[in-house]
Amino acid sequence: MKVENVVLSTLAFFTLAFLVLTLNTSDSPSEEKNWRIASVCLADHNSLSSHDHAQLTIVINGSEIDIESNIGIGNPDCDGMKGIHTHDNTGRLHIETPSPMPAPLGAFFEIWGESFSENEIMGYKNDSNHEIVLTVNGEINELYDEYMMQDGDQIRIEYRAI
Predict the structure, then answer these.
(1) Per-residue pLDDT tens over the stretch 94-141
(2) For residue 81, what are the domain limits?
(3) Which residues are CB-neighbours of 47 under 8 A, at least 6 positions away?
(4) In total, how many domains does the chain have?
(5) What CA–CA distance (Å, rounded) separates 40 from 136?
(6) Considering 14, 23, 55, 112, which has the largest number of Cβ atoms within 10 A of its Cβ?
């Protein structure tokens, strides 16, 4: 009877340890960030705490990508404007908030529905032959989606051959 209890206790311990380790793993690449500005929905330009602009350029294998007009305007979950949006296809990002809050570059891509991280831009992934380079105001920046945009920033994301 004692041997049976020891075996059952040991099995229960290892099962519990396995479940704890499995359920607490957060290495999932699909884990979404919870950026406050991505959930902002403005009805108009009244009562804004901030109204900043950043210029975004995306280059994939030497070709500049069009950044669509009205990204973040009239989305199914926001009848007005998201905290980061575009009005035209020039790449000018409008960062508008009702209260002070950070504006991470990744939040714009979340609003747009496109991928962006240090490993991927719009479905193009780093591999042994390609890299993703982010520059802000001409300087290499390694924060990628976590970069907090500032008024007047010139942001360039390039996917290129190594």
Answers:
(1) 999 989 999 999 999 999 999 999 999 999 999 999 999 999 999 999
(2) 36-161
(3) 98
(4) 1
(5) 24
(6) 112
pTM: 0.77
Q: What is the DSSP letter of 29?
A: T
Residue 149 burial class via C-beta count within 10 angstroms: exposed 0-12, middle 13-18, buried 19 and up: buried
Residue 139 resides in a domain: yes
In degrees rounded to 5, what are phi and psi of residue 39? -100, -5
CATH of residue 50? 2.170.130.30
| 133 closest CA partner among 109, 157, 107, 108 | 157
Q: With the CA atoms of 161, 64, 143 and 110 taken in that order, what torsion angle do they form, in degrees rounded to the nearest 10?
A: -120
For residue 1, tell me if it sits in a domain.
no
The total of other beta-carbon atoms located within 10 Å of residue 87's CB is: 14
